[in-house]
Amino acid sequence: MHKVVIAIGTNLGNRKENIEKAIEKIRENKITVEKVSSIYETAPYGYTEQPAFLNCALLGETVLSPRELLETLLAIEKEMGRVRKIHWGPRIIDLDIIFYDDLVINEPDLKIPHPDMQNREFVLKPISEIAPCFVHPIFCKTVKTLYEELKNEKARKTP
Q1: pLDDT tens for each residue of 10-23
Q2: Which of 39, 40, 64, 81 could form a disulfide with 69 if both were Cys (CB 3.0 to 4.6 A apart)?
Q3: Does residue 82 have an active-site annotation?
């Protein structure tokens, strides 16, 4: 079995229901969900002219390969009605692989660990709740450390 961390986000429709439905579908697809973080409401990232998001993360195990996991998550997104129109735009559901064991994969359509996670509080905060000691395989820092560094950086920038 492989340890995986998946980030979940939604800002369209019944957001809480979207998260619950996505977790249910993840469970139905060879992914054992061990822990799910609290749900956090967050401002949009990147493209800001859109509704606020609900975000959470889950820690799980799977027999799926990284590619199979990606394909499974994309199929769940599609089944739930995700339409990709605007980069970082509104979405009914967003499922991102953040970690897969301690693998580093850099393919055009599959990047693990998620390449921008260290800059996203809405990713780090829920993961630090459920897997604070998970070590980022490139930065060699725990999720908790990355989250603390991001919070400190934001505090320094705030007047």
Answers
A1: 999 999 999 999 99
A2: 64
A3: yes
